[in-house]
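Lab channel / #folding
Pinned by the channel admin:
"Please post every new chain as: sequence first, then the structure tokens as a reply. Keep commentary short and put observations after the output so the thread stays searchable."

First post following the new format, from NK:
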Amino acid sequence: MTPPPPRSPTAPPAPAPPPDVLVIGAGIAGLTAARALSRAGLAALVLEKSRGLGGRAATRTVHGARVDHGAQFFTARDPRFRAEVDGWLRDGVARVWADGFPSWSAAGGWHDAEPGANPRYACPDGMNALGKRLAEGLAVTRGARAVAVRPADGGWEVELEDGTRRRAPRVVVTAPVPQALELVRGVEWPAGMRDGLEAVTYAPCFAVMAGYPDAPAPAWPGVRLPDHPDLAWIASDGDKRDAGGAGTVLVLHATPTFTRRRFDDPPAANVADLLRAASAVVPWAERPAWTDHQRWRYALAEAPHPERALQPAPGLVLAGDGFAGGVGGRIEGAYLSGLAAASPLTHSD
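Reply from TO:
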């Protein structure tokens, strides 16, 4: 029998072409920018420091329950964002959760939600479903923490924590503004621009997740505590989705004042004090079967930049939920900032 001819060695795969744009951050702004750039025909690569997608639109599984431990809901006012949300609603990615929320105070008791409020949307599978949806079809490298962004050979170089470097003619930075200012190096800032960015401030938030397998769900989806010094918000998280056997899950958000004062305190003490505060509204709140927590250093832009994105140098754009022209800090603001970030890069020569 004639032996078969020897196989030719398999050629190694061709290296991926270099991207046209590097996008730092796979939050809502970064993913929206990358998607807009891709639709304009540019090859965008998203570099994300963590394993997740969506930034503060975050969900984790705790004791079998999927819990939103960051952004709790979103609204949609701008026509462009409403059109996006309509697609999410059609596909079941999001649903209307509530038309406003009641409030409670020690002095005044309960007050109903204001009539005619904009719908509050949530995601049955968790708020991180938004990041997963926006990332469909995009090139995303996770676990890639950027430590510096520098001009290089007429374009830009991004240095990663592991020492590797990526280059592209354009780069979009969507990290929180204080982190973005630390990243961007070797740039001659236009007059007044850096001062305006340094004026952007964020509120931190300490979040508590607590499970009560045998407790009845509250009659409300969420409640605001506008006058409480320590506790700002309580959500009945299972109201967003089928909680299954997880029972009732509460999510508590501390006030910025509490979080700033106790950001570095032992988490167990913070959890206990916030559950004690919640017991004024939910009598059994101090007796959870389990708890978890999350510290958000840049939870909400208190003083966002008035622009939706900034271009301090050719090919470099800063964006994120610290921008967005008056709706900073919200998911809608981050989305609009992502669109604004893509615009000058898709129209540049």
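NK: The first strand starts at residue 21 and ends at 24.
TO: also worth noting, Helices lie at 28-39, 79-90, 128-134, 177-183, 193-198, 256-262, 267-278, 331-346.
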